[in-house]
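Weekly structure sync, notes
Attendees: PL (lead), two postdocs, one rotation student
Agenda item 3: pending single-chain targets
PL asked that the sequence for the first pending target be pasted directly into the notes so everyone works from the same version. It is reproduced below exactly as submitted, 154 residues in total.
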Amino acid sequence: MSSTTEDIAKKTSKRMSVRTIKTITKIHKFLRGLTGGRILNTLGGDEVCFAAMTGAKSGRSLNVPLMYVPYKKGVLLVASQGGNPNNPVWYHNLTKNPDVTVEHRGKHMKLRARLAGAEEKANLWPICDSHYAPFVDYRSFTDRDIPIFVCEPR
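Predicted structure, written out during the meeting:
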């Protein structure tokens, strides 16, 4: 194996498949719904929030569990998808329909999402990493420039 092929193989073996991420997300949403939101507000000890948004294609209301990264009076939503090579589906939802309601531990915030620019992201990554350390690894798994949405009160 060439060094490039070895690097790709190492990255691929460490990151979760998109199918695994989707399965975990479905189970998380189902179990949280069963308990009325009383449990599963964390994942591996890290805080989770639920982002209610409108589907880019379907127009349906969708509720996506994401890592909770508080920022000023809103949140940062990181479209990491575990370091996989493509943006998650919800990325397209927010770029088309930026209004989002984020729920964290019973508190609902009506926010508007905007993509952070390159210079701004350099300042935001340390904040994201401090709330969910695996973001550091996710950036190493992919050549994709992982988007960060800055969600501010609307």
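Discussion points:
- The chain has one domain: 3-153.
- The radius of gyration is 16 Å.
Action: rotation student to compare against the earlier draft before next sync.
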